[in-house]
Amino acid sequence: MNPQDSSDFNRRDFLKGTSLATLMAAMGGVPLRAEDAKPAADAPKKASSPPVNCAVIGCGLRGREILNTLAVMPNAPVVAVCDHYAPFLNRAKTAAPKAEGYGDYKKLLANQAVQAVLIATPTHQHREITEAALQAGKHVYLEAPLAHSLDDARAIARAAQAALKSNFQAGLQMRSDPQRHFLLQFIRSGAAGKAVSARAQWHKKESWRRAAPSPEREQELNWRLSSATSNGLIAEVGLHQLDVLGWFLKARPVAVTGFGGVLHWSDGRDVPDTIQAVFEFPGGTLLSYDATLANSFDADYEMIYGTDSAVMIRANKAWMFKEVDSPLLGWEVYARKDEFYKETGIALVANATKIVAQGDKPVEDAPYANTSLSYALEAFISNTYVVLSGVEDFVASFNPNDTAALKEYLAGLAKSKLPAAGWPEGYEATVIAIKANEAILKKQRITFEKEWFQV
């Protein structure tokens, strides 16, 4: 069975998965009503697949968010959870009551009922667990960044590349979000003009420090505050925003200049609480990024400045701010317009229709549904089943030891997969973040070397 061949779609699901009406309008076409719209050929698809037995390794805040998201998916039963810290493991069991609990990930990997593992441990622990999971024949979803060091990231990328029978997905969740795919087509269509610069920020006043019952546990829990285990804000937060902007610009930065320091939370940490970085792209385009744990003003967003308009992205919403000399886009008359101080933003929505655009309130989504993470996990489960069934079909019909033929066969199934970040995207984003953090700590300019990106 092809997981894309599902008739279990209702009208609301269909609209969430298509961007044709707005995309065609952005390209000069006539706006379409929702009932007339059909999915664009390259639009992200939303589909269900047969169940894939999952296990979550690492049951802290992120691990529990993954568990809660899997809990509302009909095809992702959690059969095992793992954390060596008993209180975290007990909380995970509450979220997944039917799952078997493990304090040792190696014992979990020996469980033949587990088909896929989702790894949400601290970054510096990723390599050992990921290599073991792939060696055990599991399918792997690994949170980004892939690793704390360049050597570990390259080792993970090589292991994922070699594991032909396993589906590996990097946790760059925005790569699976239909809204980001809509914006990708909008920006690359030239509707905003030529991109001349970009910027992003993440501002949140919090210490990142977590309370713990013992000094040993406190050190373990606060791994993000030590440079020995963390690449700080640029990697643990900024990596996701930088990945999206680089993806939209269709380019890899050639250099980065960084600044940063501990400017507020002077509590013994050696990871900066405030950073700035400027990335240079081919052609002279600059991307500036700043993040701080000392102030919350203006929260987080991404901007792309084009010669015809600027595009602002905040969470799952986006707006276009036009220049006075920019060409008129036919769909603007129907679009919702929001005021931003002295500017007017035209809403850019993947599932926009005439009715919604003119002000009808959308139906509230259930918690943990229709988020970037939920789209990423849907893609992981669906794509895992594509690989699982593909390998089974190949083994049943061809020489199971013919690695080259298997690789070619699985490559032919790419069109059956949902959009997701693989190891190449995860590795590139990790390299950029690691080197950007190095520039921040040294307060210097670093030129990206080609060999850093070679696996």
Can you put this structure into words, describing what you see?
The protein has a domain at 190-357: 2-Layer Sandwich (Dihydrodipicolinate Reductase, domain 2), CATH 3.30.360. Helix content is 35%, strand content 18%. It has 14 helices and 16 strands. The chain has helices spanning 11-16, 20-26, 61-71, 86-95, 105-109, 126-135, 150-162, 178-188, 215-221, 232-249, 354-357, 372-397, 403-411, 423-442; strands spanning 54-57, 78-82, 100-102, 116-119, 139-142, 168-170, 195-203, 255-261, 274-280, 286-292, 300-306, 309-314, 317-322, 337-340, 343-347, 445-447. The chain has a 10-stranded mixed β-sheet. It has a 6-stranded parallel β-sheet with strand order 3-2-1-4-5-6, with helices on both faces. Helix 8 packs across helix 10 and helix 10 crosses helix 14 (423-442). The two termini are 34 Å apart. Mean pLDDT is 87; it is low at 1-45 and 352-364.
